[in-house]
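Order emerges. For instance:

***
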Amino acid sequence: MSEAPHVPVLLDEVIHGLAIVPGERHVDATFGAGGYTNAILERGAEVAAFDRDPNAIEGGQLRFGDRVTLIEAPFSAMEGELARRGFVPVDGVTMDIGVSSMQLDQAERGFSVQSDGPLDMRMSGEGLSAADFLNEADESEIADILYQYGEEPRSRRVARAIVEARPLTRTLQLAQVVRKALGHKPHDKKDPAIRAFQAIRIHINRELGELSDGLVAAERVLKPGGRLAVVTFHSLEDRLVKRFFRERSGSTPAGSRHLPPAAAAAQPSFEKVGRAVRADEGEIAANPRARSATLRVARRTSAAPWAGEA
């Protein structure tokens, strides 16, 4: 594994946003294939990398050996995990949110609407699978998940079709149920099954809760002047990150349903760095996944972390 199998999105922009200085300590919160980690190492920094996918950790050990501190854990746990290893405070934290290209490409992981595999979708391989959820949950709960996390306008129709098709065990079986429920034709540009898969995946892996907890954890481990770079791939994630940066920079000191409430009169713990960055046409042509990517960067101030548990 001398080369990463996938090039991370907005790599140059992320590295520029981090403003890395040799000798610094950085956290790659979403290790994946190690693309960000490798670029950070090349600039002379130490790296601690998180991934809850044991396959990613195993690949990282083969590729980097002891050059990287690899941690098999969700990035929301970074405060405790880094403290136990004496790897705090840090100069930078990088997050690439959502499912990785490697996970999508492996049919047996159950993330893809294009390849047949078991209806799994668990990033860590543990806990409730997509099949467990879809075969056991109430129709109303399934509809709520499809609407909230997939922004599916006809969520109740899809949920009803899912319940009627039980038991569901395979990815293509689920995809066909969704397409049929919504009258999808093969020549239609957008596949509605993608929205359903996204919603179920986010629910199974608690992705938005993990993101909000991870942002708070990053706030706690970053030293003054340290930078947080977050790449998101859909509006639910980006809105959460945008609101976090806006609140923590003092623009709107209020709570939200995903983030802890702000402490009264808390001083800004971050200052935003530049504007949101999106991929140019060249990168999109080379990597279609980059089309929906958004990068936001903020710099940690010297203020204390805001109150509230993750």
Q: What stands out?
A: The longest strand covers residues 222-232. The chain has a mean pLDDT of 90. The domain at 125-204 is CATH 1.10.150.170 (DNA polymerase; domain 1). Residues 207-221 form the longest helix (15 residues).
